[in-house]
Amino acid sequence: MTCRVLVVEDEIFVAIGIENMLIDLGYEPVGIAADSISALKLASQSDVALIDLNLQDGPTGPDLGRRLAQDHGITVVYLTANPAQLGHGIPGTLGVLPKPVNDDELRSAVNYAVSNRQNRYAAPPARMRIFN
User: Fold this and answer.
1) Omega into 59 within 30° of 0, i.e. cis?
2) pTM above 0.85, yes or no
3) Where are the domains of the chain?
4) Other CB atoms within 10 A of residue 90 CB
5) pLDDT for residue 1
6) Exposure string for 30-43, b = 16+ CB within 10 A, e = fewer
């Protein structure tokens, strides 16, 4: 079964780069959402979401991730230059990878999220902070 991944990022070139990497890894990108409303519309098609904190509709990423995880059962990984904004973590979400990220870290974070979702446990990237 192919894992379906939602990219929630308001910088289009960053989002397209992430989508291309997902395709290379064999995952199915379900779309790019630049704001919370767009992301919620794609929730039913998603297994994993990669979410930036600051989107077109403001700093809505933390709440969006919580909603996607708790209300839709999506495995959420935050990608942000401001990981301190997440405090000790958001209940139900997996963790945060600080930006900038290189391709290897991003691949590792996505593979970690997918394996975690499938109850197969792999090591997260070294810089990824896992929430409890």
Assistant:
1) no
2) yes
3) 4-130
4) 23
5) 60
6) bbbbbebebbbebb
